[in-house]
Give the backbone structure.
Amino acid sequence: MKLAMIGFGQAGGKIVDRFLDYDDRTDSGIVRAAIAVNSAKADLMGLERIPQDNRVLIGQARVKGHGVGADNELGAEIAEEDIDEVQNAIDSIPTHEVDAFLIVAGMGGGTGSGGAPVLAKHLKRIYTIPVYGLGVLPGTDEGGIYTLNAARSFQTFVREVDNLLVFDNDSWRQTGESVEGGYDQINEEIVRRFGILFGAGEVTGGQDVAESVVDSSEIINTLSGGGVSTVGFASEGVELNSGGGLLSRFTTDDRSGDDLDAANTTNRITSLVRKAALGRLTLPCEIEGTERALLVLSGPSEYLNRKGIERGRKWLEEETGSMEVRGGDFPRGEPEVAAAILLSGVTNVPRIKRLQQVAIEAQDNIDDIQSESQDNLEELVEDDEDELEPLF
Ligand code: GDP
C-alpha cells in the first residue's frame, strides 16, 4: 500500500524519517511521499531523510521558529493559519499514486498534538482517499500537561481521521534507557510493525507472489468504519535457504530438526498468531469486541501456508468475536516468520479511560493553581494596610 506520510511535530517527523529508512532497508515501497511539518526550526533541521523541500515550517509569524512549547491549542491555531503552506507541499506529491494519507504525531506535545487533527480535517475535505492517523500516547511519567494534551488531542484526532492507529509509549518504555536511546528503539518497533502491515499490499517485482495475497483494499476495508486501532506482532527466526527452496534434508547443523513439513509450518503460524494477539499491542486493550481484524503472515514463502493462515484467522474470529477477519501472506526474504495483526475498531481500552481520568485531574489542578497563584500574587504585591498607591 502506498502512503503519503506527513509527520507533524517532532515525534511525527522522526517517525516518518524512520519509515523512509525502513523503506530503503527492506525495499518495501510504502512511503510514496514524506513531508514534515513543525513550528520548531531546529526539529526540522534534525531530520535526516525527509527531503529539504518537504519540510514545512509553520507559525513563523507567531513563534518565530521556536516551537509552541507543549501548548496544543496554539499548535492547532497555527496549523489552521498556515494550512496553505502545508497544502503547497502536498500539492507537489503525486496524490493519484497514493492509496492513503498517514498523519503521524505525538499526542502529548504541542505542534503535532494540536496540528495533526487540523490537517486531517483539511485533507478529508479535499481528497477522496482515506486519511489515517498514527498517534503516539505519552508515557505516564511525562506528567499532567502531556497527559491532558494527549487526552484532548485523542478525542479530536479520532473524530477527524478515517482511522486512528495508536501507539502507546508507556507500554514500550524501558527502564534505564536514556530518553533518546529509548525513542530510537521505540521508533524502530513502530516502523517494523506498521511497515509489515502496510507493506503487505505492496509486493514488488522479484518477490514471490503470495499464495493468498493481502492487497491494499483489504487494509483499507479493515480500517474503514473508523475508530481506534492497535497492532500485535510476533516473530520467530528461521533459516533462509540461499537457493530459495526447502532446506536440504542433509543439513547437519543443530537446526536440522526444524524440518519444514506442513504440520510444523502450520503450528508455527498458529502459535505466532496467538502470541501476536495476546502479547504486547501497540495500544494495550481487550481484543474481545474488536470490530474488524487483518492478519498478515510474512516470511520466506516456504514457511508460509494457507492452512496456517486459515487456522490463525479462525482463532482470531473466536477470540475477537468479529465476523470480519481478513488474512493473507506476505512473502519476504527475511530470515524470520512474523505475524502482524491489525485490530480495528477496538473499544474496550482501559488505558484510554485512565488517561482521561489523569487528564481531568491535571485540568482541575491547573485551574486551581492558576486561581490560587492569582490570589497569592495579589497578597504579595498589595501592602497589608493598603497604604501604598501604584504609580498608574
Ligand atoms: P511537538 O513537536 O510539539 O509536536 O511535540 P513532540 O513531538 O516533541 O512530543 C510529543 C510527545 O511525543 C512526547 O510527549 C513524547 O511522548 C512523544 N515523543 C517525542 N519524541 C518521540 C519519538 O522520537 N518517538 C516516540 N515514539 N515518541 C516521541
Strands lie at 3-8, 31-38, 55-57, 100-106, 131-137, 163-168, 228-237, 292-299, 324-331, 336-344. The CA atoms of residues 4 and 95 lie 8 Å apart. The chain has a mean pLDDT of 92.
